[in-house]
Amino acid sequence: MAQFATQSVGGFLDLLAAKCPAPGGGAAACMAGATAAALAHMVVAYSIGKKNLAEHQPLLESAAAALLRARAMLLQLADEDAAAYALVNELQKLPETDARRRAEWGGAAAAAVAAPRAAMAVCMEVLRMSESLAGKSNAYLRSDLAIAAVLAEAAARSAWWNVRINLSLVADEGERSRLRAEGERACGEAAGVRERVEGQCAAS
Asked: How many domains does the chain have?
């Protein structure tokens, strides 16, 4: 499985476009989130050290470190999501009575839900950080900050689709309901944060 952190953009897109089960939507969601984190980090890079933003330097420095972590996590989750789905796809081709399928199915199903769920959580953090930067970062890059928020929301919603589609793999009905409610709540929050960031950037 490709390591997306070292993959060229063109190479990743070639893999994504290919007729193969992975990478797919889950990896695409993670890469969109990583792009959002990188773009928000650029806003911070152009804000640190500016005299008119001196009072916000601690926030900016903290955001820079957090956005670097978020980007790295999302790249790692892109790998994990692709690997998880590839395994599920492989196991689904085996008879339900197959010994390997019976032994590995539970872990594979859990990983197929866990990776996009974690990606959704990281994308939510990128969104919240973007909101914290609105009005406290370089005003000349406010369109970039708004775009970062738009991308982060799209990534969070995309990651939720990958959780949602894999909920059928979760055996426990109560757990399925809990995860569905969690995802729908997160998507609602993501839309609200993105709207506030866009509003603050437009008003700046």
From this structure: 1
